[in-house]
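Each lists sequence, tokenised fold; shown next:
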Amino acid sequence: MPLLREELMIKCTVTTEESDIIFKLFEAKNADLVYESDYDKAARAVASFKAVDFDCSHTLEPREIKTLLWLCNGEEPTEQRVKYEQALMDLDENGHIEVSEWITYLILPEKISSKESSVSPFNS
């Protein structure tokens, strides 16, 4: 069942700005409603982003991306893997990974699937 933005913000520890990003990414038909399970996934993605943004720049550097991937996958990623995943995440191709790009990469992979074939070093 969809919940109101205010109900979800009370339940999860995200700022208004982060909540706006989450709602925008899910493209809620009603700007004040989103499914609780979707919002929870996105709020966890925001929390993981904040946890590894060591320099508090609000963007991720390769070493921070490496840490995130390591935590998510349980094994240390190679430098090649980090570069590949960074290229996938960087939707606006500005060289910086922002929280909205991390959320999209993590929980809305269908939004980056078309980019995958053009950046993959693993395709023949």
About this structure: Residues 87 and 95 are 8 Å apart (CA to CA).
